[in-house]
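Two folds, back to back.
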Amino acid sequence: MQTRSILVTGAGSGIGAGIAAGLAADGHHVIVTDLALDAARAVADAIRAAGGSAEAHALDVTSDDSVAACIAALSRPVDVLVNNAGLQHVSKLEDFPIGKWNLLIQVMLTGVARLTQAVLPGMRERGFGRIVNIGSIHSLVASRYKSAYVAAKHGLLGFSKVMALETADTDITINTVCPTYVKTPLVDKQIADQARTNNISESQVVSEIMLKPMPKGVFITFEELTGITAFLIGPAARNITGQTITVDGGWTVQ
């Protein structure tokens, strides 16, 4: 596979950091971006210490100015965009602060459109591009108390399908990977939030809410998501576009 320049959002921790490290280990140059520059730098430093190629940049996907500044500062053009930045808030809609609701939509839906819009002209000019959106099982199903997250992740699928049609005239693809729970700091916080909201123990949240719907009954790993992303950006997947890659341990086949 040809070495690519890959920009990963929300790569200062969790899924983004795992995918960045995994793709760097495959020989790609990784652009580690995060709202927290120190976190992005730590991930990039670790990649370089392991022999990989990486650079770090601050990026707020809710800001036009931040996106423009980040793209202008890059050492090389973006061949692959991995839209991963995300956050969660667990609350009944009646108690859900609308400002927080809007923030989730801005980061996980509008922010995806903003950054995709920024990199598409360069991809078209070079005649190649791959966009991988990190969705969720909640792109496909719903859970109580996650109205903003579920709305954003559902919207991501529609956005990806439209962009697949708009980029079908060149060698650009866009797909959405939809995993169930991955053990990350974000999920650890969700466990605590769900325990409080549902008035059950954290172990019950894991067994009864997170893993029970999955016949496989295990958390998804960074290695799985890295491998799927690597496939989607490779030559064997050049005609896979606008698709939803569901990684759910059998959840939605029931």
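---
second:
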Amino acid sequence: MPAEVVYEGQGAVLSGHGQVTAQHVLGREWLDDTVSWYRLLTPISAPVPVRYDRVEVVAAAGEHAATVNRVWQVLDPSEASTVEIVRVTRLDEVTPP
């Protein structure tokens, strides 16, 4: 069954290296998350992703971007906030076997 495209457009994938730093400071896993923790930023007008949706980066603004052709899955629906400028969704990278 082919994948259904839910959203195609501008966004950003940011790495969560802050979590790794917190793990070293705390001496334990932070919030029991995996080290492969990323955040997807999309416009508020984009659909809300659901758990296990697949996220692929097919192009990037920077010519040396290391995110092109990488794949993630959505961990949770987007984060909530009293002021939303962009939609923030937690991701986990899908690593090849």
